[in-house]
User: Fold these one by one.
Assistant:
Number 1:
Amino acid sequence: MKALLLISWSLLLASHDASATEAQLQAGKKLVDTHCISCHASSYGGDGSGIYTRDYRKVRSFNGLKAQVTNCNTMLNLKWFDDEEQQVVQYLNHTYYHF
């Protein structure tokens, strides 16, 4: 009985995490679209998204991605909270990097 309850609880948490992840990705996309793309487009060209996939990109790991998002937040004085930085990291990783 305990095993069944544990399995049910795990499935419930897993389904909750999936919807939270989707919400997190959407929030991250909104932040990227609002704050990142125009800067990247002006410095890199095109629609700005090529900066994430270029051969000589700076970001080479998940920790590097987190550090770069924090760096942009600080240097541009965006004043994002930690959870907003995390949303951007999750969106960029899901969409471009796949670490």
Number 2:
Amino acid sequence: MARQTATGRMYARQEGGDLQVPSITTIIGCEANDLGGWYGYSAAQALASDPQLPDALRDSRRRRALVNHAAKAAERHRDQAAQRGDRVHDYCEQLALRAMGREHRVEAAREDLAEHHETRFADSADQWWELYRPEPLAAEITVWNATVGYAGTLDLVARIGGKVCLIDYKTRGTDRSGRVKPPDPKVVTQLVAGLKAEESLVDAATGQWEPWRYGDAEVLMAVAIGETEALTVQAVPDHLPLHWFKFCALAKVWARSADLETAGVQLRSIAPPPLEGNPTGRGGGVPESATARTVAGPAVD
């Protein structure tokens, strides 16, 4: 139901249907995020640790090849992290399906992690389930908000300690002390958008939806799953309205950006104004349709 497009990940109302609204994460991605330092460090680290570097210093062609390869280190790291995150999310989904008494692939998902030397992530997920004892109500559930115009998929809705919780898993690395890194605060915005959904998917093949049942969930929770532990954090309730206002503003930014993306050329050439005392316009001139008057203010003097 969701596919990647030039304007981000988009959702349809049913399998094979027309794409209508952006995903929650696509909207949140409109916020500026400066990763220049990380990109530079990744490239420098990849180049410095490349065993071919000493020989390449004496060969300009090989040196350029190494530089080009190192320049893409951040993208490779990002893609690898995304693939690992997919595997960890799949394992967590299977745990929920098993707890709900539904068909599952827990063993296969764990084997997939083991093949990539990522079993410790599964161990951390198992530990979280043992400690928090969630009672799953829905796993990987797709939600829709037609008023604002977005859709998304929530990792887990569960009852924990008698309270309904919306839960988002984040696969995270560990710091130098061996502790898992906390989730980015943007996860609160993501969870609030899920809370404010209007519908949830019942059947993707037929496009059947129902009113969202968990809009009154009491706890919004993020679980950072790492190789050493799982860290659980709760969104501060008093800050949720601010995150919702921010998300709605970002949704407007996305919509206007998408309009501009399909509007065509945004800049066009403009000739210099005619020479003074040259009514014939010889030497160029600014056509009326292209003067600054069409945007704002007086024409060019």
